Amino acid sequence: MADVSLLDYDVLLVDFDGVLWLGSRIIEENVKALREAARRGVELVFVSNNSTRTRRYYAWRLRQLGLPASEDNVVTSGFAAATWVSERAPGARVYVVGEEGLVVECHLAGLNVVDAETARKGLAEAVIVGLDRLFTYTKLAAALRSLLAGALFVAANEDHVLPREDGFDPGAGAMVAALSRASGREPDFVAGKPSPYIASLALRGRRGARALVIGDRLDTDMEMARRAGLDGLLVLTGVTREPPERLPEAVKAVVNNLIEAL
Ligand SMILES: [Mg+2]
Questions:
Q1: Which of 35, 47, 139, 219 sits most deeply, having the most CB atoms within 10 A of its CB?
Q2: Whether pLDDT at 142 is above 90
Q3: Considering 190, 209, 224, which residue would you say is the last residue of a domain?
Q4: Strand locations in 142-240, DSSP E?
Q5: Could you tell me the distance, in angstroms and rounded to a whole number, from the CA of residue 49 to the centre of ligand 1?
Q6: What domain range includes position 218?
């Protein structure tokens, strides 16, 4: 038994990859424990660095697992990046290096998504970068021109790699690095984990709630918990397979699966 119980918290900030599923495989024990926590009145908010899909898609996928989800309790790094830009520059012209989920979240945030030709003229006011599996030299060049003209440089996240069932694929951080190198600039803002911004979005309207961050990674999930001043629970079903030798600050417990923390 862990010395942390999911039931001691008002809200759980739950990661997807490595917690709910791994590739196409569902991690049943974790899903079961979260369903039980929700049934007993604990609120679930899902927080992911994946910007390729919309909140609406993930809410649907989570409901298929029997978890209570709508667009209101799903936060992606794409949503966080779009929200941050729209708060700072409402209606701004943005160029997106990313996939459909990021483009849709920009539209929903009221941003004006421009094409590569416009960005190439240096007319985008912000360049938002997420994982883009159709990344091309044309996109890199268009984004660069706007960055050199002074556009805000916003990263959905800086994850270096994405764990797959058969190894690692490049993450959004690889696209961010290409643009950093070309422009000589670092991102002005990184929206996703470990940024405490995405945690504050997830907890918006839940002031004073006791919140527990549940995730499989030390560098993103647990580091976000530390920066946001929240408790963390590390689950060994994803990227992290062995308990760390020294528990980083914020990590209250390490469990093999979430049933152990019910
Ligand atoms: Mg994960």
A1: 47
A2: yes
A3: 190
A4: 152-155, 161-164, 167-170, 189-190, 211-215, 231-235
A5: 8
A6: 6-49+193-261
